[in-house]
Design a protein that fits this description.
The chain has about 450 residues and is an alpha+beta fold. Helices cover about 30% and strands about 20% of the residues. The protein is globular, with a radius of gyration of 21 Å.
């Protein structure tokens, strides 16, 4: 596709939701273009070094993880485990997660898209303009000084920031700065001594960090640092929730704020590395082995949809006639950089996600997926996790392919949702040999 090209489905954003949307659309027969401005696919799961896949499994008291959304999310999890890039599932308190290595996620994503017919991937490419009114008519892409216009039949906004929605002038909402979920800065340590992060030792490490902050031996921003060992000897991820750059109002859409946040996060990482090495047993030979390509923004714009997922929906485990996915993660509120507050649904019920929450209000050929779907601030704290993003991305991609083939199908959302669920059964269940069902 060069110059003024056309495609059936354009997916903006190559994170977990965008990856799922693009693969689902292409497998459904749509000529699909996936645009991502980083060099890797996976978003938070690769570039931001988020190392646990949350939201893949149902909440339950009984042992043994149960897959919540069979289809593409299960395929990704299985491929990661088979490649040695994930281990588990692992029970952590009341939830099951799949720990993984971010580079492995990026590699699995590469393998999937390269094997998907009808899918073209554009890395190092950004959306800079969108034209239209009640339909997206044309978008403009930018890569290293070159501009390109694309005329898509249907668009999936999986940008995380509802970028297509905003550029088109469609409706969105964003929480006030003080209540936005705080971003995460994650880095990898190696050279950690065996046993340094066993249960009792983790408490000692946390206490030493807190004492150092009180004595001003460490910056205040290091207070919420959490360390977690991987399955490899001497290796641990460190996660720091950032309250925002000192002296600035946190705005995840403002370039000066984002620039300062990245620099501030790296400064905290190296300060922690030096402190641990010099003052905490078991870290004398440790070093920073990997920094994130970007800070992990958890919340920004949320699209206005045909139906907003409300806080009460998550609390009660709502059921919808046009359901296309399940949200199973508790509301993980991180409005302050001091750790998460978890609010679990009644009886651990899953929440059905309606297709209406994936349809941008007033724009017939625009769907949204991932963390920018229509949801309240609190509900978004549940649906934004990677496992649920894979599920909403898959649903949006299937819906987009169906709409590209038959635009009139959009007139009846409930019928379209039924068609999405039927298409998932046909196209998105991998066989035991790793290939997908539905292949000729």
């Amino acid at each position: 596709m060069t110059g003024g090209s056309r495609c059936d489905v354009l997916v903006v954003g190559g994170g977990s939701a965008g990856l799922a949307a693009a693969v689902a659309a292409a497998r459904c027969g749509a000529r699909t273009l996936l645009v991502e401005w980083h060099a890797t696919l996976g978003g938070m799961a690769s570039a931001a070094l988020v190392h646990s896949l949350c939201g893949l499994y149902l909440l339950r008291d009984e042992p043994g993880a149960v897959e919540a959304n069979p289809g593409f999310s299960g395929e990704v999890a299985a491929r990661l485990v088979a490649a040695g890039g994930a281990w588990g599932p692992v029970r952590m308190g009341r939830v099951d997660v799949l720990p993984h290595r971010p580079p492995a996620f990026a590699r699995v994503a590469d393998e999937i898209v390269c094997a998907t017919q009808g899918l073209e991937v554009r890395l190092h490419s950004a959306l800079i303009a969108a034209e239209g009114g009640d339909r997206v008519a044309r978008v403009e892409l930018f890569c290293r000084g070159r501009r390109e216009h694309v005329e898509p039949a249907v668009v999936v906004d999986a940008s995380g920031d509802a970028a297509v929605v905003a550029l088109l002038g469609a409706g969105f909402e964003i929480e006030e700065s003080a209540r936005l979920q705080r971003p995460a800065f994650i880095f990898l340590l190696q050279g950690v001594a065996a046993g340094a992060l066993e249960d009792a030792r983790r408490l000692v490490v946390a206490h030493r960090i807190a004492s150092a902050v009180r004595s001003r031996a460490l910056p205040k921003g290091a207070l919420g640092a959490a360390l977690r060992a991987t399955d490899r000897p001497g290796e641990a991820f460190v996660t720091i929730d950032l309250d925002g750059p000192p002296g600035m109002v946190y705005d995840p859409l403002e370039p000066c704020c984002l620039s300062a946040l990245e620099i501030y996060g790296r400064g905290l990482a190296f300060a922690l590395e030096a402190f641990l090495r010099e003052h905490v047993a078991g870290f004398a030979a440790s070093w920073i082995a990997a920094l994130p390509a970007r800070v992990g923004v958890r919340e920004s714009r949320r699209a206005l949809g045909e139906r907003r997922i409300e806080t009460s929906d998550i609390e009660q485990g709502a059921v919808f006639a046009d359901a296309v996915a399940l949200a199973t993660w508790p509301m993980e509120l991180r409005e302050q950089a001091t750790g998460a507050r978890l609010r679990f649904p009644l009886d651990d019920r899953p929440t059905q996600i309606p297709l209406r929450a994936l349809r941008a209000q007033g724009v017939a050929n625009l769907l949204v997926a991932g963390r920018c779907i229509a949801a309240s601030h609190e509900a978004q704290a549940s649906v934004r996790v990677i496992g649920t993003c894979l599920a909403t991305g898959e649903a949006a991609g299937l819906a987009a392919a169906l709409l590209a083939d038959r635009p009139a199908a959009g007139a009846d959302t409930h019928a379209l949702a039924a068609a999405v669920n039927a298409a998932r059964e046909r196209f998105m269940h991998p066989r035991s040999d790793g290939a997908r069902s539905g292949e000729g």
